[in-house]
Amino acid sequence: METTQAAGAISGNVLFYTSPEPLSREQHAKLALVHKDKPYSFAIAGTAVPVAVTEFAPSALSYPIIFAGDERVPLAVMGLNNGENLFVQADGGFEPGAYIPAYIRRYPFVLANDDAQDRMIVCIDRASDLLSEAGETRLFDDKGEPTEYTQNCIKFCDDFETERRRTDSFVQLLKDNDLFELKRATFTPQNADGSAGETQTVAEYYGVSEEKLNALSAEKTKELQASGALAQIYAHLVSLVGWDRLIAIAMTRQQQAAGTLN
Q1: Rounded CA gap, 24 and 247, in Å?
Q2: Model pTM greater than 0.70?
Q3: Residue 141 belongs to what domain range?
Q4: Average pLDDT of the residues in 173-199
Q5: How confident is the model at residue 254 (pLDDT cuts 50, 70, 90)?
Q6: CA-CA distance, 181 to 6, in Å (whole number)?
Q7: Which of 60, 64, 103, 198 is the most buried (most CB within 10 A)?
Q8: CB-based contacts of 226: which residues, under 8 Å, 6+ apart?
Q9: CB under 8 Å to 129, separation ≥6 — which residues?
Q10: Rg for the chain, CA atoms, rounded
């Protein structure tokens, strides 16, 4: 993919990217990646992060997977409050053992729409502290060609776009079969005397209805199974157990914070 781009209008508001610029050998010839053992500070406020359908299984081990908005975008939920990510630590580390979505791993690279030429172009977040002229791994070599690192990042973005389109098709399949319903994640606190408190709604979101899924004809179910969609649906349903894990982590953090204050 061409990396030297004419300046054009980039459309879209992309989570984590505050200053996206088309990757250019002229403008970014001296830029290099800054190596960090804990590079994920940029995601510390990412409450919910997009995931591709092929990531449902590994994501389900760590997060609830929900569908959001009219487009029913699949998201891995990483926090209970806006601007909170319970899996990214203050020093930029990621919770050990938790799956890191490709959306996070591709940063600071991204594909964006170039409205002037109606195509996708490779961009970087120029505001990222992972890019600097004092970094260790250059984006371009002395001849102005993308280094192996940059080529790998561009391929990763291309592959991500392919998976995004596959995910769009999966979501459309769920829509076509009318499988979505509004769901609620709830939490019942425990009172000081050990009795159950009043149940609270933690989140409202779209998910697959098990009732609608079970009502599908045998032929339609077989089609979903043959396409691989059924396995991804079940991965989503299994992931919803993760709400309890999120709530437990959040409560532990609150208790730790209260202990620190006291």
Answers
A1: 44
A2: yes
A3: 10-261
A4: 86
A5: confident
A6: 44
A7: 64
A8: none
A9: 34, 41, 42
A10: 21
Q: Is residue 117 part of a domain?
A: yes
Structure tokens at 131: 């890019």
pLDDT computed for residue 77 by the predictor? 97
- Dihedrals φ, ψ of 189, to 5°? -70, 160
Q: Indicate whether 184 belongs to any domain.
A: yes
How many C-beta atoms lie closer than 10 Å to residue 147's C-beta?
Answer: 15
Sheet (strand 10-11) strand order: 10-11, 109-114, 119-125, 20-22
Q: Residue 152 in contact with residue 48, Cβ under 8 Å?
A: no
Q: What is the mean pLDDT of residues 178-189?
A: 91
In DSSP terms, 140 is beta-bridged to 146
- 1 inside domain: no
Distance CA 207, CA 179 (A): 8
Helix axis angle for 148-176 and 229-239, nearest 10°, is 90
Q: What is the pLDDT of residues 110-145, one digit of tens each?
A: 998 876 667 889 999 999 999 999 999 999 999 999
The DSSP string of 55-104 is GHHHHHTTS-EEEETTTTEEEEE--SSTT--TTB-TTS-B-TT----HHH
What pLDDT is recorded for position 236?
Answer: 98
Do the beta carbons of residue 147 and residue 182 sit within 8 Å? no
Summarised one tens digit per residue, pLDDT across range 34-43 is 999 999 999 9
Number of domains, the chain: 1
Cα atoms found within 13 Å of the Cα of residue 260, Cβ hemisphere only: 6
